[in-house]
Specification:
- The structure holds 3 protein chains of 3 kinds.
- Chain A has one domain: Helix Hairpins.
- Chain A has 3 helices and no strands.
- The longest helix of chain A is centred in the C-terminal third of the chain and has 31 residues.
- By secondary structure, chain A is mostly helical.
- The mean pLDDT of chain A is 90.
- Chain B is mainly α.
- Helix content of chain B is 72%, strand content 0%.
- The N and C termini of chain B lie far apart (69 Å).
- The C terminus of chain B is likely disordered.
- Chain C starts with a helix and ends with a helix.
- Chain C is 72% helix and 4% strand.
- The model of chain C has no long low-confidence stretch (mean pLDDT 88).
- In chain C, helix 15 runs antiparallel to helix 19.
- A two-stranded antiparallel ribbon of chain C has the order 1-2. Chain C has a two-stranded antiparallel sheet with strand order 3-4.
- The chains are: A mainly alpha, B mainly alpha, C mainly alpha.
- At the A-B interface, helix 1, helix 2 and helix 3 of A face helix 1, helix 2, helix 3, helix 4 and helix 5 of B.
């Protein structure tokens, strides 16, 4: 435990974040975009927990933020799935390239 | 190289490997499973850091709820079997470069920074302390966000049901073929573009 | 003296009637509008008579000289401490005389139109236009400021346009209205430039101060005579340009082309506007600026004289050949106005030298009476015969007795037979010409003879010549000669044509305000009267009974007759100049420039904007991931900017 410093955890967190960003910008399927967003949110959670443990061990604020982020992520995922299903019913496709009617 | 270090590296490999695979594989079901692995890895990381409560929450909510939700939606949208479309090459190269560049930028800051841990007495992250602090109204109490989040969950629940509900149409308006919907949507699209073209 | 409020009512009553009729009367009380307008004019007439009586016989004279009175003056637009446009009323001998003439003739025309225009669909509109015209004319003659006269000048032009184009369904009427307006507007360009020249050098727009500065030995006079352009002094340019404006309105050659065509309007309109009032506006303008003309710039006055006499002679020749009775009267008007112009032109200022001025104003006064009578009589004839051409008339003396007698009176007056009014005024003019310029006198006296000839040609062709055969529908159950309202003005004007000559004009209206004693040289008057009688007898021989003498005379004169009949091709020359030269050389390039360069620039800006927007519209492609990429790139850029580059 002593050898694993904050920097290692931050590395994991940042790497996961940018993996999520890459996935969000690249994937064509709406559900996989949602998965990438979950990865991003989880990386943020790791970040909060890491800082809470290593720098602010006297408080639990990071933990609480993590709890709330998990909660909100769950709600947001549910709403997003509902929207995707609705969109699928109308246009029969979950390809995000097909949902481009709001353009010039 | 103690055992904890090795465990940490295995967990990290699981997390990052699962993540990378989740965003790159072509079949959607496999992507969901790789996401599952990644989330389990994260939960393991939380257990490794002695934050058991969060680890448990992670498994219950994320693994047991969100991934299941995602898999359900995969079923509902009939896309489980096929390969997904590949993104354009320029798009993936650009995103890769941007992500790598930003990662390097951020890491350079993190590596330069001197992190100073606090000298005060550490507080034990057990459920008692979490519960007490979450419902306290004092300076570091989180009762207000707690209540707000509960309302948010209610709103999300109602919203999801309203958005995703299947409206039963009167008998003569049932679309005989779903093709009508797509044609309708497509024609609306061309009409919209025709109007903007004229302008 | 009447208080200034009542004097202000003289022009204000017609404009109030115009507003009432055009806003309310046309829709709700169409038949009453004539009564409203006539009552307003009658009120103005009574007030004008009162003002005239008080001015000439009670308060106008100070130390034996008739003063210029200004009962009202409001500063309207102040350009600088010294220059402002004022609206006011200037009363002096000529303006008081003019308001009496204008309101009287207008009143006669209003009464006459009640019968002539009865049954017209736009009866109320006609009366509203008449009221507007009367207001404009009264404002013009009462102006105390040269810009005020210009404003009312243009208003008179507009009213004339509205009235000439009254029958707007006839294309010839519309064309005539346009022609009148454009020709007078073109002349008014000269007028405006003249105003600016005079105002710039004299430093004021007010008549009294301008005349004072430009007739005494002042700095303004020396500067304006010193400045010259192309060899002619600025004063001459200013006065000549102002005269061009006057010549346009008074139908002097070569700006006379609109007057014959203006006969397309209703005949009472011709009587009011194109005989008695509007066309004398040019003469009035020269008379108003007469001190400057005569004292400081006699060269301009010579131009006025020559233009006047040439127009007079020119019009007389053409009038001998025309067959439309209103055209004959139009050319006769042009000829008589030429008389007034050259009478002013040969006159000088003060005392005996100012005889021409007095004669011109006297002729204006008497001419208004008998010319209005001639036009209203012609209107009765046209109303009876339903045609303007002489060949459809003849032998009407039995059918229209009152019109016949009054028309004869008017013709005798215009021919200058004593004791009718025209004799006295023409005598004075010929006397002034004789003393100043013999050549002008000779041409004038020949023109007088020709005037007698063509007027009696007109008279005999209408009332004698043949026996009248009604054309078309039966006239026995006809309206007869005309209603009472049509006959009453004829009688009143007939009486005025007889007695107007006896007004002691030379004691009232002179160039410098001092009463003038005129003597009667019987020996002098014999020659013109004899020539006029000769003209009458020649017309009698040719036209009293139908014969072939006129036709053989016309054939004998050949080309001269033909070109006179075609009005000496002046209209064709104008058309050529405008269509071939102005349109092609100026109009088309200007239009090309407007379409291609100006519109092209604007279109270029528009198309450029559209092109740019087309190029960048793909930024909003509707694809969410593109938006996310831009967002992400933007955040990285901001991070780099703020961390590395922000100092």
């Amino acid at each position: 435990m002593n050898e694993i410093g904050l920097t290692h955890l931050l590395f994991v967190s940042i790497a996961l974040f940018f993996i999520g960003v890459y996935g969000f910008l690249t994937r064509r399927n709406m559900i996989t975009m949602l998965m990438s967003i979950e990865l991003i949110l989880n990386s943020v959670n790791i970040n909060f927990i890491a800082f809470n443990k290593y720098l602010y061990a006297n408080k639990l604020d990071g933990l609480f933020f993590t709890i709330f982020v998990i909660t909100i992520a769950a709600a947001e995922a549910a709403v997003a799935i509902a929207i995707i299903i609705n969109l699928y019913r109308n246009t029969r496709s979950i390809d995000v390239e097909d949902a481009d009617t709001m353009k010039f | 190289m103690s055992a904890s270090t090795i465990i940490f590296y295995i967990l990290s490999a699981l997390i990052l490997g699962g993540g990378i695979l989740a965003v790159t594989v072509r079949k959607i079901f496999r992507a969901a499973i790789f996401l599952l692995f990644s989330l389990i890895g994260i939960a393991g990381l939380y257990f490794y850091l002695n934050y058991e409560f969060i680890g448990a929450v992670q498994i219950v909510v994320y693994v047991g709820g969100i991934v299941v939700l995602i898999i359900f939606s995969v079923f509902l949208t009939h896309a489980s079997g096929d390969d997904m479309n590949k993104p354009k090459l320029t798009r993936s190269i650009f995103s890769l470069l941007a992500a790598v560049f930003a990662f390097a930028l951020t890491m350079s800051y993190v590596l330069k920074e001197q992190f100073v841990p606090t000298t005060q007495k550490a507080i034990e992250p057990n459920v008692t302390n979490i519960g007490t602090q979450m419902l306290s109204t004092s300076a570091h109490g989180y009762v207000l966000p707690f209540e707000v989040v509960s309302m948010l969950l209610l709103a999300a629940m109602i919203g999801c049901i309203v958005i995703a509900i299947k409206v039963k149409l009167p008998a003569h308006e049932v679309p005989s073929d779903i093709e009508d919907n797509r044609l309708m949507a497509a024609s609306k699209d061309t009409l919209g573009s025709a109007l903007t073209e004229q302008v | 003296m009447l208080n200034s409020g009542l004097i202000a009512l003289i022009p204000l009553l017609p404009i109030i009637s115009f507003i009432l009729i055009s806003l309310v009367g046309r829709k709700y009380f169409p038949k009453l509008c004539s009564a409203v307008a006539t009552l307003a004019i009658f009120g103005s007439f009574i007030l004008s008579l009162t003002v005239a009586y008080q001015y000439f016989f009670q308060v106008g004279k100070v130390n034996g000289i008739y003063q210029k009175l200004i009962p009202l003056k409001y500063v309207w637009l102040q350009f600088s401490p010294n220059v402002s446009i004022d609206m006011g009323i200037l009363l002096d001998a000529i303006s008081v005389m003019m308001i009496v003439v204008v309101t009287f003739i207008s009143l006669m025309v209003h009464i006459y139109s009640m019968g002539y225009m009865k049954g017209e669909e736009r009866y109320a509109t006609y009366y509203s236009f008449l009221s507007l015209f009367t207001f404009s004319m009264l404002g013009l003659v009462l102006a105390c400021n040269i810009f005020q006269i210009y404003i009312f000048w243009e208003l008179v032009g507009v009213s004339s346009f509205l009235l000439i184009g009254y029958y707007f369904n006839k294309p010839s009427a519309v064309a005539a209205a346009k022609k009148a307006f454009i020709v007078t507007r073109f002349a008014d360009l000269g007028f405006l430039i003249g105003i600016l020249v005079l105002a710039y050098y004299s430093g004021t727009l007010d008549f009294q101060s301008m005349i004072g500065r430009l007739t005494s030995h002042s700095d303004q006079l020396s500067s304006i005579t010193a400045a010259s352009f192309m060899g002619i002094s600025a004063l001459t340019w200013g006065l000549l340009l102002v005269f061009i404006g006057g010549a346009g309105k008074s139908a002097m050659f070569p700006l006379h082309i609109w007057l014959p065509d203006a006969m397309e309007g209703p005949t009472p309109v011709s009587a009011l506007i194109h005989a008695a009032t509007m066309v004398v506006a040019g003469v009035y303008l020269v008379a108003r600026l007469f001190p400057i003309f005569s004292i400081s710039c006699p060269e301009a006055l010579n131009v006025v004289a020559y233009v006047g006499i040439f127009s007079s002679f020119f019009a007389a020749i053409i009038a001998c050949t025309q067959t439309d009775i209103k055209r004959v009267l139009a050319y006769s008007t042009m000829s008589q106005i030429g008389y007034m112009m050259f009478a002013l032109g040969v006159s000088r200022y003060g005392g005996e030298n100012g005889l021409g001025y007095m004669a011109s104003m006297f002729h204006l006064f008497t001419h208004a009476m008998f010319k209005a009578l001639l036009f209203l009589g012609a209107g009765s004839v046209i109303h009876y015969v339903h045609s303007n051409e002489m060949k459809d008339m003849g032998g009407l003396r039995k059918h229209m007795p009152i019109t016949h007698i009054t028309f004869l009176v008017a013709c005798l007056a215009i021919a200058g037979i004593p004791p009718f009014a025209g004799f006295f005024s023409k005598e004075e003019i010929l006397q002034a010409a004789f003393h100043a310029n013999k050549m002008i006198f000779v041409i004038a006296i020949i023109t007088a003879a020709i005037t007698a000839f063509y007027m009696f040609r007109l008279y005999f062709s209408i009332f004698w010549n043949k026996t009248y055969v009604a054309h078309g529908h039966g006239h026995d159950d006809h309206h007869g000669e005309g209603t009472f309202t049509m006959k009453l003005p004829l009688v009143i004007l007939g009486i005025m044509s007889i007695v107007a000559g006896f007004v002691p004009f030379s004691k009232l209206v002179t160039s410098d305000g001092l009463p003038l004693v005129t003597e009667f040289h019987i020996s002098f008057s014999i020659a013109p009267v004899l020539l006029a009688t000769g003209g009458i007898l020649l017309a009698l021989a040719f036209y009293k009974k139908e014969n072939s003498k006129p036709q053989s005379m016309a054939n004998g004169l050949g080309a001269l007759y033909r070109s006179a009949y075609k009005k000496f091709y002046i209209d064709e020359i104008y058309l050529f100049i405008t269509k071939k030269l102005v349109f092609n050389l100026i109009g088309r390039p200007a239009a090309w420039f407007d379409r291609n360069v100006i519109d092209g620039t604007i279109n270029l800006v528009g198309n450029g904007t559209a092109g740019i927007s087309n190029a960048i519209k793909t930024l909003q492609s509707g694809k969410m991931q593109q938006y996310a990429s831009y967002f992400f790139t933007g955040v990285i850029a901001f991070v780099i900017l703020f961390i590395y580059l922000w100092t």
